[in-house]
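Mods, move this if it's the wrong board.
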Amino acid sequence: MRETLGFHEVDVAIARRFSLRGAVTSPIRVFNIAEMGIQSEAFLGRIGRSFQDLPFDPYDPAAAAEELVKKRSPDAYHQHEAEWISYWDELGDLQYTNPVAGPQFWNQRVSEEVQVTLGGLRPHRRRSCFQYLATPHSSSRYLWQLRELGNPPFKQSVSDLRARPRRFATAPAAVYRDVDILLFAGFACQMARQAASVIATAMKVTLHQVLTYANSPAGNDPAPEGPHQDGSPFIVSALVMQRCNVVGGVSRVYYAGKDVLALEHELAPGYGIFQSDTHGRYFHHVSTIYPADPARVAYRSIIGLDIDFVSEDAPILGSLRSS
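Not the wrong board. Structure tokens:
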């Protein structure tokens, strides 16, 4: 049965304490979910359980395969580029059954030497997405109305592979309708509104769940593209939900130019970073994570938000984050 998209109201009056002390006006803010009136331990346990059931991200190995073939078999890439771009659109469906479909596409079109490397490309992240349209209530400065938009295809306003449409699994209803997730989204909108010093008609909020495994002694990257922007005015680059048997995963925010560090913080579960993205031309990155004990499963999971200013009656387009 197909679920009907819902409508929610959240009261974020607790945000007033941050505006009074001026902290919320900063374009970068490290926060604790408890500051929003959310019981951290219960929230982390309840939402954290959902990550292991998400499908693997098929675009990571697909992008790595494309880069490899471009570098080592450029003639093969140019010969099959149009076919590959068309096949890219199928990865959204194949994530449920074959997350290594991207490398397998190229495996049939390159030399045996390149095939060996392609065979080692594996997915290392589980993902989901969901979108809301958030509008400030006309009668209250701290009341937000969130309308569910579902999970349309997304593409980012960037100049790399992330500009291509991608389709990830829809977040579970128990996640995108969770009362604390809704409060978190409304709170982030309030911070964006106050930090930007604008009265936005509406905000499109994209919710991301990302679990990154540290299943290699060489480590795995929560943000394979390096220091980057996500293409939205404001973001929660990461609210860390779980750190299981991992070391690393240090969040860094850079000023424009990606070479001047503005903030560095290893986020513990329950802590996150709200920041300007394109609104102030900040870049962000997360360092490689490694297993503390290679004999045990190791992973780091996060929730992220992209916040875009939109007109309430404008067409809703998507954006995606990777970290």
